[in-house]
Amino acid sequence: MVPPIGRSHLPTRLDRGAKCLMLLVFSLGTMPAQADSDQRPEPVSAWELSIAIPDGEGERALSLDPAAHFHVILSNRAGVVQKAWKESNSWGYAALRFELTTPSGDKFVVTRKERSWRKNIPSFWSLNAGENLVYNVFLGSAEWAGLPPNPQGKHLTIRAIVEIPDEEKSREYGVWTGKVQSPPRDVVIR
Fold it and tell me: Which candidate in 46, 122, 177, 187 could, as Cys together with 78 as Cys, close a disulfide (CB 3.0–4.6 Å)?
């Protein structure tokens, strides 16, 4: 006999033992596997860093023309407001740097050149959860040092790094401290 539409062959009531068994099976199926008790899940980073160099004609070209720029994007992935130093003071000016790696493995660290500060006022950005801070980077300008010699036409891997040391002013103003880096990007220097 075919049951009427909308009716089920399953019993409408489960005994207490069956309910406990179903709960146990469901719970075990949703628990993360852990090889040993010393293993801890990696903490979720409060920030995410990325480099925006679009693919054009089959390659990601990074121009060193002083007027050309690209973007580095710092994204707040924490569920709370976070502070990051502005680049207009000594605390934020040197926070961004780049690692360039040649195909042979040679590394170059590109940093902003040191400068003097007539006015050095602690100022910061407050980023709500999910908000982004976009750095405009003019890597071919005179403010950057550490590029490889004669880089034009070379294929390199670039990684952006933002690092803010734990120091007195950061603690006083509640500015985030630590290090975050972008995934590497393969580029050709133009």
Answer: 46
